[in-house]
Amino acid sequence: MVAKLIWYWVVDFDNMRQFYEDVLGLKLVRLDEFGGWAEYESGIPNFHIAIHEYSFDEEDEEEYELETGVGGILTFATPDIYKTHQQFLEKNVECEDIVTDEFVTRFNFWDPEGNPFQMIQM
After folding, report:
1. How distant, in Å, are the alpha carbons of 3, 14, 43, 115 from that of 11?
2. Residue ranges of domains in the chain
């Protein structure tokens, strides 16, 4: 068994596409606008990151409440964590301070809907 994909529910599909493409710089490899699905290269062969637009019938709104900002934490790696951190702050990305522990230099950050990510120094 191998990991192939991590995906997140999103509410504002267009805004989230802009985040994944313009802020994270991910290459779009599959787009289904009708189905609300965008899939991106991750930098790992055969492993993709995707977003899926959450939609519901108004009658069923209470039955299908969506809580964003929960789920797994996808970790990215960068050769210059300080430069990446500064670039994210300049693009108004919510970021924690950079920390170094005995294992790694890292910072946590969130997309515009609160989904968590982590950046580590390569």
Report:
1. 25, 9, 25, 12
2. 5-121
Instruction: For residue 2, give both structure tokens.
Output: 């191998």
At 51, give phi and psi (nearest 5°). -125, 145
Helical residues (DSSP H) of 1-122, grouped into ranges: 13-18, 81-90
- Tell me the whole-structure pTM to 2 decimals: 0.71
Q: Which of 53, 52, 49, 31 is nearest to 40 (CA)?
A: 49
Mind listing the pLDDT tens digit for each residue in 75-90? 898 999 999 999 999 9
Q: What angle do CA 56, 15, 52 make, to 5 degrees?
A: 45
Residues 14 and 51: beta-carbon distance below 8 Å: no
CATH class of 5-121: alpha beta
DSSP 39-59: EEEEEETTEEEEEEE----GG
